[in-house]
């Protein structure tokens, strides 16, 4: 998605609200529910205290302006028959604009160090006759080290994905 399009879509608080809700509800949300949640948030009222005019004004704005704009950009799919709004993969693309920079771990280098050290110790074990330093034990140790690094890499990647960027909304 072009950056200008992304910034245009994210420039409006109502669209950010819709996108944030769709990040949480991958199975889609009814437009009327989105409008009610948004009206309640904007008017700082519980949903059951909203007037019909507050609900309608928000619904019309979403229906006529914001949902079509998001749909035209391919960020949401709107089913007018059911009134359901569904996120596409572009929602997460937009969320990346809010991702915090974090220090990345150089996983290829870690794998290379474990493999290189392991290969060197394995070669040494083949040349030097030390009882506890047999090629079999060294090979198992190196393999275990690589499995541990791979496990740590997996856990790190899963946590990073679970703590992915979220589209901000006003009252947070």
Description:
This protein is mainly alpha-helical. The chain folds into two domains: 96 residues, Arc Repressor Mutant, subunit A (Orthogonal Bundle); 56 residues. The chain contains seven helices and three strands. It has a three-stranded antiparallel β-sheet. Strand 2 and strand 3 form a beta hairpin. Helix 3 packs across helix 4 and helix 6 runs antiparallel to helix 7. The radius of gyration is 26 Å and the shape is rod-shaped. The model has no long low-confidence stretch (mean pLDDT 84).
Q: What is this structure's SSE topology?
A:
Layout: H1 3-10, H2 13-24, E1 29-30, H3 31-43, H4 52-72, E2 76-79, E3 84-87, H5 90-95, H6 107-127, H7 135-162
Antiparallel strand pairs: 1-3, 2-3
Helix pairs in contact: 3-4, 6-7
Shape: rod-shaped
Question: What kind of sheet is the major sheet?
Answer: 3 strands, antiparallel
Strand neighbour order, sheet with most strands: 1-3-2
Please give the domain count.
Answer: 2
Q: In the CATH hierarchy, what is the architecture of the largest domain at level 2?
A: Orthogonal Bundle
What is the element string, with H for helices and E for strands? HHEHHEEHHH
How many whole angstroms does the radius of gyration measure? 26 Å
The CATH topology of the largest domain, please? Arc Repressor Mutant, subunit A
Count of DSSP helices?
7
Oligomeric state, counting identical vs distinct chains: single chain
Strand percentage: 5-15%
Percent helix range? 55-70%
CATH domain class of the largest domain: Mainly Alpha
Low-pLDDT segments: none
The tally of strands reads 3
- Report how far the terminal alpha carbons are from each other: 27 Å
């Amino acid at each position: 998605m072009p950056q200008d399009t992304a910034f245009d879509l994210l420039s409006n608080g109502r669209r950010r609200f819709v996108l944030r809700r769709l990040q949480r509800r991958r199975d889609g949300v009814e437009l009327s529910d989105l409008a009610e949640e948004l009206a309640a948030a904007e008017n700082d009222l519980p949903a059951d205290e909203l007037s019909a005019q507050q609900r309608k004004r928000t619904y019309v704005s979403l229906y006529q302006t914001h949902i079509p704009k998001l749909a035209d950009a391919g960020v949401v799919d709107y089913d007018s028959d059911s009134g359901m709004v569904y996120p596409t993969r572009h929602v997460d693309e937009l969320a990346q604009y809010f991702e915090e920079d974090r220090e990345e771990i150089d996983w290829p280098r870690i794998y290379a160090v474990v493999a290189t050290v392991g290969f060197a110790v394995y070669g040494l074990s083949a040349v030097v006759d030390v009882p506890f330093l047999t090629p079999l034990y060294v090979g198992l140790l190196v393999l275990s080290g690589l499995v541990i690094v791979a496990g740590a890499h997996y856990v790190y990647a899963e946590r990073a994905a679970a703590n992915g960027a979220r589209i901000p909304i006003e009252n947070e």
